[in-house]
Specification:
With about 375 residues, the chain is α+β, with helices and mostly antiparallel strands. The chain folds into 4 domains: about 5-105, DnaJ domain (Helix Hairpins, Orthogonal Bundle), CATH 1.10.287.110; about 120-160 and about 195-250, Sandwich (HSP40/DNAj peptide-binding domain); about 255-330, HSP40/DNAj peptide-binding domain (Sandwich), CATH 2.60.260.20; about 335-375, no CATH class. About 30% of the residues lie in helices and about 25% in strands. The protein has helices at about 5-10, 20-30, 40-55, 60-70, 85-90, 90-105, 125-130, 270-275, 335-350, 355-375, and strands at about 120-125, 135-145, 160, 170-175, 180-185, 190-195, 205-215, 225-230, 245-250, 255-260, 265-270, 280-285, 290-295, 305, 325-330. The strands form 6 sheets. Strands 10-11-15-14 form a 4-stranded mixed β-sheet. Strands 1-9-8 form a 3-stranded mixed β-sheet.
């Protein structure tokens, strides 16, 4: 019985690229896999044909020979099916490795396992956030073992190629219609074994130690800012790549200022007399200086005054935001008898003169509301 054209088996054109070829194979292999079609001889035969076709067309040299000579290129016992179903299933194993290898950690077994990223929480004051800060931190971590230089092998020796996987870090086993690939149990996926482990690190290639680092906190950082120090995380196993260190900044609440981005807000209590007659008050500024704010006569609680370029430093360009001063008119307490008399005179003198327009307007509306209810 003549064999079907490999391109026809996979349902693709001859000029198909590698990505489309792989996609077509994966779709059909999933459809006709024997586990999905138990007892279906036609599906099993179709699955074998798919593997045979893909095993040839995925290989550039085999594909070129097939395009030129057809099935005759493999007619002398060297064809893709010469080693039986197990060899043809290698194509499906490659697809499986591509789909799940990274997730399961089985791909690239010869590379050493990288170190973990680390997190360090740092709290700074708002003044430090404004100016920036050079800080020294101590981070407990794993560092490269100096005795073996990270190899994990005792001085004078070196890791050898794993005989179980021949350095691939993975082994394959045939189970029914499946070719199962898993991490090599002998070398744990490293591809190498250590026959004489280092006495200091017990073959891990790293040791636990507290690392001291200098960290530059730039001016203008905000709460929640993350700073990455590349290569300052945990050392990898047996010379694997080092992880990164991430410093998470939290800015402590300030007793005077509140921050919103690059702007600062400050509530300032002022005496009733200053609010009534007008005047000026001195307010603190985040850089340690002072600023004078002119208070107009008749100032009310909640009234804001803007001080340009008196806010926080910006991370971009070093410019500064603004500061907003909010007035809080303070009602006097602990009055003397004379002060109470003066306030009563003040109240009597102001009757009907509009000295308290907000309260007079409010109670006028209240009276109208009550009159409407009684009608």
């Amino acid at each position: 019985m003549a064999k079907k054209d490999y391109y026809e088996v996979l349902g693709v054109e001859r000029r198909v690229d590698d990505a489309a070829l792989k996609k077509a194979y994966r779709k059909l292999a999933m459809q006709y896999h024997p586990d999905r079609n138990p007892g279906d001889g036609e599906a099993e035969q179709k699955f074998k044909e798919l593997n045979e076709a893909y095993d040839v067309l995925k290989d550039k040299q085999k594909r070129a020979a097939y395009d030129r000579f057809g099935h005759e290129a493999f007619s002398n016992g060297g064809g893709p099916g010469a080693h039986g179903f197990g060899a043809g299933a290698a194509g499906f194993a490659d697809i499986f490795d591509e789909m799940f290898g990274d997730f399961m950690g089985t791909r690239g077994g010869q590379s050493a396992r990288g170190g973990a990223d680390l997190r360090y929480n740092m709290e700074i004051s708002m003044e430090e956030a404004f100016k920036g800060k050079n800080a020294q931190i101590h981070v407990p971590t794993s560092v490269t073992c100096d005795a073996c230089n990270g190899s994990g092998a005792e001085h004078g020796s070196s890791p050898t190629t794993c005989n179980s996987c021949q350095g691939r870090g993975r082994v394959r086993a045939q189970q029914g219609f499946f070719t199962i690939e898993r991490t090599c149990p002998t070398c744990q996926g490293a591809g190498r074994v250590i026959e004489d482990p280092c006495d200091v690190c017990s073959g891990a290639g790293r040791v636990h130690r507290e690392k001291t680092l200098q960290v530059n906190i730039p001016a203008g950082v905000d709460d929640g800012t993350r700073i990455r120090l590349a290569g300052e995380g945990e050392a990898g196993l047996r010379g694997g790549p080092t992880g990164d260190l991430y410093i998470f900044i939290s800015v402590a609440p300030h007793q005077i200022f509140k921050r919103d981005g690059s702007n600062i807000f400050c509530k300032v209590p002022i005496p009733m007399t200053t609010a009534s007659l007008g005047g000026s008050v001195e307010v603190p500024v985040i850089d340690g200086g002072k600023a004078r704010v002119t208070v107009p006569s008749g100032a009310q609680t909640g009234q804001r005054f803007r001080l340009r370029n008196k806010g926080m430093t910006s991370l971009r360009g070093g410019s500064r935001g603004d500061m907003y001063v909010e007035m809080e008119v303070e009602t006097p307490v602990n009055l003397t008898r004379r002060q109470k008399e003066l306030l009563r005179e003040f109240e009597d003198e102001g009757q009907g003169r509009g000295t308290s327009p907000q309260s007079e307007g409010f109670f006028s509306k209240v009276r109208e509301f009550w009159d409407d209810l009684t009608e």
